[in-house]
Amino acid sequence: IRAAVGDDMELILDSGVRRGSDVVIAKCLGARFSLFGRPTLFGAAVAGEPGIARTLQIVRNEIDMVQAQIGCRAFDELHPGYLWPAAGAAMHPHSAA
Length: 97
Fold this sequence. Notes:
Elements: H1 2-5, E1 12-13, H2 20-28, E2 33-34, H3 38-70
Parallel strand pairs: 1-2
Helix pairs in contact: 2-3
């Protein structure tokens, strides 16, 4: 999508974000923002404002863990080179491979 719209348009992932790895993948694909309502809603339902804070801390920890696993020191340094194609992606008729 980033290649199609260029750098002048903000890309925002606003659905299906459940964990830190989703945020990392979105960033690698060019998203500047990842919105996640459901996890924070669950945190609020369980413990109110502290539950939201805990949810955000869990996601931050997951992001840090994924970055460590792929060898990326800074969030702003994430790029598509950190991703591998999904199994069978080369067989898809619209794939870039």
